[in-house]
Amino acid sequence: MVIIVICLIIAVLLYRNMQRTRTHTPEIHCGEHCGTERWQIKTASDAEAASINPAPQSSSIAELASLPAPRESGDTRSEAETHIYSVEAILLGWKAETGEHGDRDYHLVLADPDDPNRTMIAEVPSGDCANACSSSHLQQFLQTRQILLSHFPEPHAQFRYFTPAWRVRVEGMGFFDMFHRQKGVAENCIELHPVVKIEFLRELEPQESPPHRTSESGEHHCTHIERSSGSEDE
Questions:
Q1: pLDDT over 90 percentage in the chain
Q2: Full residue range of the structural domain in which residue 169 is found
């Protein structure tokens, strides 16, 4: 009988110790909160991202801008968002998404070499952000940002045009954003988001560089975001 009581006491003590250890073991998190709307898709940390073919599909800004935007976008990907696209473009300029509604992305504006008036946005997530830091593409985000910083000074919240501009090749996942007057937005609000690779091909001659003009006005045919809560993310 005494042995049984001792065994019960030991069992209770072990259970309490396990509960105490479980209570005080910190949960493992990485990164800070940066974005809200479709953030897992923007950072390629959603469940569908793992099934995306890593081989890039050659395209152009004009071709991507002609794709029909889905009527509404939520937590699942549309067909165009299940591909990595590779486009040659003119890199017009960039900025850092900082401030109250910023998500810390590098915001790039690309122009179609055959028609520089047609532009689209490409975004490179920060590895310091939640979801981005746990994405299987994290190293590509970090490498892309490092390549950009090897060519230009650190970007600021104010958009900066490059003089002269650069011819580049950019690879990234298709992403339909909503229209909120973002700099360089395509008419259907498609973006390369996230960017997973950038290659600098050549610096343009001054006479080749397009004028410093990107339009956020005009007619747009963009998706509507199914909102639950949160603010606008660029």
A1: 69
A2: 39-225
